[in-house]
Amino acid sequence: MTAATTGTTAVTTGEPQAGTGTAPGPRARLRELAVAGVVAGVAVVVLVAAAGITSSVDGGALGPRWWPSVLGALLLAGAVAVAATGLLRPRPAEGEPTLGGLLRLALVLALVAGFGLAWYRLHFLLVMPFLLAGLVAVGGGRGLRDLLLVPALATAVLYGVFGLLLRVPL
User: How far, in Å, CA of 112 to CA of 118, rounded?
Assistant: First the structure.
C-alpha cells in the first residue's frame, strides 16, 4: 500500500510501493524458472546416463548405477524446489550487480582456476587449504580460526574420506 501524507492526513492508494520488495517481479520469477529448467535438464541427462550404465559385476542394490541415480534424483528435487520457491515466495527487490559483487565473483573464479592449475602440478594436501582459505576470505571470514583452522580441518576431512577411505587418487 502506498501512503502519502498531506498535512496531518495519510492517503492510501491501494497499490504496492515501488521498490518495497513485497513480491517478485516477472524478471525474477523468469530467472528462477530458467534456473530450475536448466537444473531439471541436467537431472534428466544424469538419470538417462545412469540408466545406461552397464556392469559385468553384480553390485546388488548399491551397484554402479546407484550413485548417479541418487544425484540425478536430488538434482530433480532441487529443480522442483527452485521452481516452487520462485513462484510462491515473495522476494525482495533486486538491484543491479554491484562492483564489489562482481569483483568477489571474479576472485572466486580465479581461485577455482588457480586451484585447478596448481592441483595439476602439486598434491591435493598442498593446494586445497589455499583454495578454502581464499574462498573463506572472499566470503567474509576473518581471523585465525576462519582462515587457518577451517581450511585445514576441511582439507583433512576431504582427504580422509576421498583419499584414504574411498581411495580416490588426489
Answer: 10
Mean pLDDT, residues 20-41 taken together: 76
**What digits encode the pLDDT tens for the residues 102-115?**
899 999 999 999 99
Residue 25, pLDDT score: 63
Grid coordinates of 158:
576431504
CA distance 95 to 26: 14
Using an 8 Å Cβ cutoff, are 76 and 50 in contact?
Answer: no
Main-chain phi, psi angles of 63, to 5 degrees: -75, -170
pTM greater than the 0.90 cutoff: no
How many angstroms separate the Cα of 34 from the Cα of each of 26, 42, 63, 80?
A: 12, 12, 33, 12
Q: What is the DSSP letter of 31?
A: H
Residue with grid cell 577455482, as numbered in its chain = 112
Lowest mean pLDDT among 22-31, 61-70, 161-170: 22-31
Q: With beta carbons less than 8 A apart as the criterion, state whether 155 and 126 touch.
A: no
From the DSSP assignment, how many helices (H) and strands (E) are in the chain? Answer: 6, 2
